[in-house]
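Attaching the record inline, Q. Sequence:
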Amino acid sequence: MDEYNNRNDYVREGGVGLECSKNNGESCICRILQKFAVGKEVMVRTNSGDAFEGEVVCVTKDGCLVLLEPEVMTPYIEKRVVFVRCDAIESVSVDADHPHDLPDSC
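Structure, as predicted:
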């Protein structure tokens, strides 16, 4: 994954055959992520209690969130791509730099 420094590098290279869409999945969380969090760092918690942190690459047409997890030094873990089904996401935390980063429905 060294060749992917950020979301733009990953998308430019075509990812792993992903087709990203602006209107995808049935999950309101993924619609919000696609609209407001692409390119931002997020923390995702799943229904099973797993947690993932990384940059949102996109949401696929079939309803999967694609994250680019950063490299970790201790213990060493390479950068990696994580796929999470939108219907398995319980909650998401996104740093909002400005109030206008929030969805209109708030």
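Confidence is low (pLDDT under 50) at residues 12-17. The helical segments are 7-12, 28-36.

More tomorrow.
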